């Protein structure tokens, strides 16, 4: 019973946190606002989360996982054309997934700049994406589909940075066309690696 | 005489600010530290600068101008080969100029995330770079050197984002090779636009 209550209190704080962060953004949100919204005891809240950075860290878990799922799409093309088609598709899906979570990602973007903990979490996610891309680049290089001119890890960093840039740009706009954004960055990536 | 003293006080604060920001970074620097370092009156300091964001804004003026000078290099190539050579040269010079100002740019990068005023200043600088690149892209497109497939402004944003990424990466490392970094990003840009 006590454990159930404990889980329920934690969930209340997470739900309340989501409401407050979406309403006030990261910098302007406070634990006091979250606690009031959750209707839990002031001291109790800090048993579960040390501060708002800690709480936000847990809240964005799902958001980041959604993006990472797109990042882990299978990549075993049998031809250059197939490789290009997968790349364009994946870039589009990545931005589309970002748009689906636009409001929360705007807060994530704000928090990356201000919170060391969230910056670190995003850096970990970035490593995940870069490793996944580097694996794909190596696959394409080993199967003689892509140029071996550059190190797979360097290329992966470059390609993810283009995707990340397109993501932040798109979620900050009100009328972003995911396919168009993906098409532009894919063109340069494909021209550089698959020409 | 009074005006001279006033300029001298302002300069003292700027010099002291430079010392403190380089020593403590942006988030950990305080106006109190700067005032102590400058040896001016507490109340006097705030006549010149409202807060540390205001002071930092003035301090990084020069740093940003240094980068912008590289961004305004003349670009009137007569052939595709000449265009490619200028682009590679300019990307290298941009990162080299960044490395020359590495310590201050590390603080700038930190401040962009945390300070609305500094984020806005960097956004203005970014617009400067993007306009300058867009002009170059249009020149190359009009002279049938570059592909007309994409809008010059979109291409400019993409190319500056690669330069900016390479800049932040390079200044955060201790052994960055400007030529190597510039060569990687230039390869993708040139393949996409000049293939």
TrEMBL record, chains A, B:
Gene3D superfamilies: Homeodomain-like (1.10.10.60), Tetracycline Repressor, domain 2 (1.10.357.10). One of its GO terms (molecular function) is DNA binding. Residues 30-49 bind DNA. Keywords: DNA-binding. Residues 7-67 form the HTH tetR-type domain. PANTHER family: ACREF/ENVCD OPERON REPRESSOR-RELATED, TETR-FAMILY TRANSCRIPTIONAL REGULATOR. This is HTH tetR-type domain-containing protein. It comes from Caryophanon latum.
């Amino acid at each position: 019973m006590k454990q159930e209550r404990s889980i329920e209190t934690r969930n209340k704080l997470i739900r309340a946190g989501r409401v407050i962060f979406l309403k006030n953004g990261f910098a302007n949100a406070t634990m006091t606002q979250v606690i009031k919204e959750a209707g839990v005891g002031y001291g109790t809240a800090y048993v579960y989360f040390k501060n708002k950075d800690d709480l936000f860290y847990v809240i964005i878990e799902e958001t980041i996982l959604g993006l990472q799922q797109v990042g882990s799409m299978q990549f075993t093309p049998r031809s250059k054309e197939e490789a290009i088609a997968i790349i364009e598709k994946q870039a589009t899906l990545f931005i589309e997934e970002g748009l689906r979570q636009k409001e929360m990602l705007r807060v994530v973007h704000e928090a990356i700049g201000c919170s060391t903990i969230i910056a670190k979490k995003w850096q970990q996610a970035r490593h995940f994406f870069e490793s996944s891309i580097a694996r794909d680049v190596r696959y394409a290089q080993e199967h003689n589909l892509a140029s071996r001119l550059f190190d797979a890890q360097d290329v992966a960093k470059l390609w993810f940075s283009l995707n990340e840039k397109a993501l932040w740009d798109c979620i900050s706009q009100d009328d972003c066309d995911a396919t168009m954004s993906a098409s532009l960055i894919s063109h340069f990536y494909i021209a550089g690696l698959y020409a």
